[in-house]
Amino acid sequence: MLEMRPDCERCGTDLPANQGGAFICSFECTFCAGCADALDERCPNCGGELLDRPARVGKALANNPASTERRFKG
Fold first, then answer.
1. Which of 10, 55, 67, 68 is an S-S bond match for 35, by CB 3.0 to 4.6 Å?
2. Longest C-alpha distance within the chain, in Å?
């Protein structure tokens, strides 16, 4: 199950689990659409491809809440 990190690791933008607009690599590093574009869809941590993260909604989100640990080091 995806961790569903709450923010962009590069700029700190909030990325709610129940909305689109987040991009992840295979290690679940998470970035907003603007940062993913700026990074040419490549993860700066592992070099992996950044892809759209699926949203988690309804009962799935209620039963499996998103992470609250923010990754932005600003």
1. 10
2. 34
- Entry pTM: 0.93
Q: Which amino acid is at 63?
A: N
If DSSP states are collapsed to H, E and C, what string results for the chain? CCCCCCECCCCCCECCCCCCCEEECCCCCEEEHHHHHHCCCECCCCCCECEECCCCCHHHHHHCCCCCCCCCCC
Two structure tokens written together for 58: 């309804």
Quick: pLDDT tens for 33-54: 999 999 999 999 999 999 999 9
Would strands 51-52 and 22-24 be described as parallel, antiparallel, or unpaired?
A: antiparallel
Instruction: Write the burial class of residue 34 (CB in 10 Å: 0-12 exposed, 13-18 middle, 19+ buried).
Output: middle
Q: What is the distance between the alpha carbons of residues 68 and 11, in angstroms, rounded to a whole number?
A: 16
